[in-house]
Amino acid sequence: MIRLTINGLEISVEEGTTILEAAKFYGFPIPTLCYMEGLSPYGACRLCVVEIGEGPKARLVTSCTYPVEEGLKVRTASSRVIKARKMILELLLASCPQSKTIQDLAAAHNVRRQRFKQEYEDCILCGLCVRMCEEQMMAKAIGFQGRGENRSIGTPFNIKSDICRLCGGCIYICPACQLRCTYTEPEKAICGGCANLSPPCLEKEQFDDMMCYMEPCVACEIKKD
Amino acid sequence: MKKLSSISELTDFRHRILSEKKFEHEKLTLVVSAGTCGQASGANDIIRVIKRCILERSLQENIEIRVTGCHGFCDTEPSILVEPGLHLYPKLSIEDVPRVIEAALTGDIDEELIYREPQGQKRYYCQSDIPFFRKQTRTIIASNQKLDPIRIHNYIEQGGYAALEKVLLKSDPEWIIREVQESGLRGRGGAGFPTGKKWELARASNNGKGQKYIVCNCDEGDPGAYMDRSLLEGNPHSIIEGMMIAGIAIGATKAFIYVRGEYPLAIKHTIIALRQATDLGLLGENILNTGIDFDIEIVRGAGAFVCGEETALIKSIEGYMGEPRQRPPYPVEKGIRGCPTCINNVETLANIPVIISGGAKEYAKVGIPGNTGTKIFSLVGKIRNTGLVEVPLGIKISEVVYDIGGGPLGKAKIKAVQTGGPSGGCIPASMFDLPISYDSLAEAGSIMGSGGMIVMDDNTCMVDVAKYFMNFLKGESCGKCFTCRKGTQRMYEILDDITKGKARLEDLDLLEELALVVKDTTMCGLGQTASNPVLSTLRYFRHEFKRHIVDKRCDAFVCKELVGAPCQSACPLGTEAWRYVAHIARGEYKEAYRVIREPNPFPSICARVCDHPCESKCRAGTTGGEPVAIRSLKRFITDRFDPSTYTPKRTEWSDGEPPSVAIIGSGPAGLTAAHHLSLKGCKVTVFEAEAETGGMLTCAIPSYRLPRDIIRNEIDSLLDENITVKCNTALGKDITIKGLFKDNYKAVLLAMGAHKSRPLKLENEDVEGVYPSIEFLKAFNLRGELHAKGKVGVIGGGNSAIDAARVAIRQRDVESVTILYRRTRDEMPAFVEEIEAADQEDINIQTLVTPVKIIAENGHISAIECIKNELGDVDSSGRRRPVPIEGTEHTIQLDTLIVAIGEDSSTDCIDPVSESEIEITKWGTVQADSKTFLTNLPGVFAAGDLVTGPNTVVEAIAAGKKAAVMIERFLKNEELVRPAEPCIPKVYIEPVAVDDEMQKAGRARTPQAPAEWRKRSFAEIEVSLSVDEATREAMRCLRCDLEFTKKPEVEEKKTLPIGEKMA
């Protein structure tokens, strides 16, 4: 057993546990978007940063990837952590304002403004879907492509994948997609992307670039009314 | 090659090669540096010609040729180095080669081709005497020029594989690690982790069933850094040796060299070197029967910057997408395929054989404690000598930049160096005393990085620099972690807005806040240092960011959206130079005059004496050619129009009785302000202490440059019923500021200029025959008094020194005139054309002398004692400080001495009225707000030289104009400061067709009267251009304005109702 302190509370956990798991177990909330039990930690969203160490050696690390160490002193909500977290949320809001999950997190952290140029992206590239597909569905149908600002998720060569079983695990797990589409009630929709398509229907084709695999097509349903 | 099978065989082999080398030591050798850089500049052609010459003349026995990697002095390539004399012949063309060979054969030196100081005439016959090489400590890179990288024998000749032999004989890995630890070597890749410590950790780690790896990191992606390439290219065996020693130390049997695919020559040389080492039995299984296996494989990087990061590099070697993973575990615990992996930089590994052969203690003597050894920097940018320099750690930045680099490339002052590539930061010139070490650079907000050192001067915009690096990083960030991907994009967005004048001041705080969070929360080294370019420029150059945001100006003339047409932004008055030049090309002279006159009430005067900042920023000049002769074109137009024919737009004073404004001083600043206020309907009274108006224009500028009737005409055209001029009325004597307010003046503008010559502060300065320059010029220009007699000396190097000298030589009783200046001619602040004119008029200019004593006889000057100077360290102005050489005192016989070492603002007259309490700065100028021109007293404004110290005419006019605007706003009770707008061209002028011949034509030369004739006359020297010349010159304009203006749509667009199709 490894002993460490989180926010002053001395705890002991098994070796190999991450800080995030330890904190969750003892009831310290740490927000995260790219962590999911059962999937390997990835450290992409950076929301789960916590402060470790003391004095000039204090630094921020992602709790989802950092294994516990003997005598480690962890602060999950120090001012440095909160400042970083708020800025990350602000950046997230600037990129994906439609996501209910991100909106809720921002609200919970008292992020009241967004000072960057507003974008309307669908994806924060947390990689949950990629890991879901690979680790739980054993498919490896989707993966990352491109670098930096051109990074995106897709099937190889962006063509329909033969390996994909359309299991929907990727949609299920997506923090940006989650709660996004309200199906046939477009006025309640958070993104409304499908309703705003022009022309507004792609018939049977899936809305690949929105990572939406709804069947039947929402746009078609709207048109019927 | 026979395979060696024991350590003793290696020893024998080495000794045999070394003894052969001794025998051939003195052989004449031509060394051609043909690294990638050398080949790109034509080294291959040089080699071909040398070979042909040797074959044609059958010189095989006499001359040897050695093709080597880069010797580091990239500026000189393609070059030939002649051994054994080490004569360096730089920048050769193929025609020069036979001459070099001829000289080498006869043992001579070709005086014409041998290396010379840039811009200097001093020749250096031996490579090691050249300042660029002399100040370096070349332990690593010096080998490059001594060996052919594709010959293992050459490497062994230089003592190669001796360290390996030593290690194998000792057969004690712990000893190696102790040695490396003791040497204090730190990772040269940038982070500076102690190499010995890393090896110890790697040795102790036993994660991977015994398998361990060594990786040589040659994924050098920093823009402007290429030392790793040149090491791998020029001396691959030293890297291989270093890797083998590292492998033996940590117990690894397999190694990788991860090299960028963009380095084909390095890859080629490494492949050859690996094959040779394998053939010799130094690589492979059971090396030299010691039971040690060691194998090296080359992995080519596909060009992602992030793959230089160790965890991403491991992924890339494993065959996955090159993206980092979160550490811990560190690679020394869990690296390639989960096995302990020790990753070292190329330069680190190149240091290992040196440490092992020479001993750790010896190695640790170089450098400073904690930062031992040497480091190679690639010195590039706005500097004279570019190339790879190897210096001991702890050396000052200034030594690298000025002593080795040779200082700035042109006249512009060096402003900063950028170290560490995109992840590094900028260090301002004021901190150049900083010793270069891992810790001091980190403290200054930069990093050592792989060792790029980019020198920047005043023509570099720091916002643009930050934007450039951020653009690089946003493309090179792998994108895995959110803060790095989005953070760099957002920082770029904000920086881009700043350079386009769209940002607000709050954005700076946001930028800083974001940069700190990115630094704190990203996954790998790339993200953690990505903020450095932003944070360090914000830390040291925040004023530049603010200038972009608040004033919408880019002082380096880089940010296009703020600069517009450089000629227009460079003019303090914002004169649309491009516009009148375009009108001249079209033959529309009247229109051109209107464009010139509108912003400037003194166009004819400026056409003669303006220091033409427009020309110095003209793109035709800054892009390699000659600038358009804008001032001559202005002269061409103004000569055609009488100033009185122009009627400016007038407005009546709107709120009630027009207020009275008092202006003290009738120089360009005062008169411009008076003119502009009178146009707005104010009643203005101008008070002048002298008998004539015009200030410095009349009392200092000689009439051969500026004829008196031109001044009179132009001033008279400005005076109208709203302006009253009172000459012979001095502030402090006849009037006081308080008194003016009592006399119902609503505002006062102080524009008395800078008429107080600075004294030398030497004994006997008050004797007869010694004159302050302004007094001397005034006495002549205003009263016609001839003070200069016999032998005249002028001290100083500014325009007023040259004016005084040229006026003196025109005076009747003058025998000769000598200018004495303490620095060199290059550093003289006077205009170049003025210095040239002085030369032509037989004025003797002595530089690097300082007067130390005035010798007087009977109350009259008889001689002056001077001391010679040499140039020393660089001072705060970026120029080398003159340092007196002891024992070089000498006397110069003189009858007249004119002191022209600068002027101070005329604040004396304010002192008697000190009850008015005008704040004076420590430089003796009046303290006034740079934007509102308000002094500390309400209603009292100050402008011109009085505020800035001695300055140009156009600056004074601009100040007067801006002050007038402020005074008007003040009188109307309006907000003084308003948001700035970028000054960009707004009017479209159809360009004329220009043929090729015209564009290639050189700059028009203004005809000048012959020197012999003009020496005795005060008639104007410069003559106007002819119509043909002027049109031709105007057509040379590149028309930068067209990028911002659009041809107005003449034809009305036919709009069709939606749904209808065009027929």
Provide a descriptive summary of the structure in words.
The complex is a heterodimer of chains A (225) and B (1063). By secondary structure, chain A is of the alpha+beta class. Helices cover 24% and strands 12% of the residues of chain A. Chain A has helices at 19-25, 79-95, 100-108, 128-136, 169-173, 218-224, and strands spanning 2-6, 9-13, 49-52, 59-62, 73-75, 143-145, 152-154. The termini of chain A are far apart. In chain B, helix 25 packs across helix 30. Chain B has 42 helices and 32 strands. Chain B is of the alpha/beta class. The mean pLDDT of chain B is 89. In chain B, a hairpin with a 5-residue loop joins strand 14 (414-419) and strand 15. Chain A binds chain B through residues 41, 43-46, 49, 59-62, 65-67, 80, 83-84, 87-88, 91-92, 94-95, 115-117, 124-127, 144, 146-151, and chain B through 304, 306, 321, 323, 325-326, 328, 474-483, 485-490, 493, 506, 510, 513-514, 517, 520-523.
What descriptors fit this protein?
heterodimer; A: 225 residues; alpha+beta; Ubiquitin-like (UB roll); five-stranded mixed sheet; two-stranded antiparallel ribbon; 6 helices; globular; B: 1063 residues; alpha/beta; Glutaredoxin; Rossmann fold; 42 helices; 32 strands; 38% helix
